[in-house]
Amino acid sequence: QVQLVESGGGLVEAGDSLRLSCVVSGRTFNTYAMGWFRQDSGKERELVAAISWTGGRTYYVDSVKGRFTISRDNAKNTVYLEMNSLKPEDTALYYCAASRSNAPREAPEYVYWGQGTQVTVSS
After folding, report:
1. In terms of CB atoms within 10 Å, which end of the chain has fewer, N or C?
2. More confident: 31 or 30
3. pLDDT exceeds cutoff 90 at 103
4. CB-hemisphere CA count at 13 Å for 50?
């Protein structure tokens, strides 16, 4: 089975930084593109960032460009989301997910999902 476990969320103040981690168990981590999604109460799930199989291509939603960085370490089966200059509007439950596509942009393209880690940013 493939399992994804996120960590690193918490309660922080505006302007603070957090680094989310997602450890993936499985035999083919290097063949999956990885994404970070977020969903706040009453809002639809949003793709925040994604990274290709090899890490050569990345995607960021406009609202986080320049503040968030996605990266992966295939040797550790781990994907990261470095979040800087956090804003209250970044508050959400953050999920990592794995896709068999090399450039997934839609939730149905992601096959495996973690349970999520909560990020709350106070003003």
Report:
1. N
2. 31
3. no
4. 23
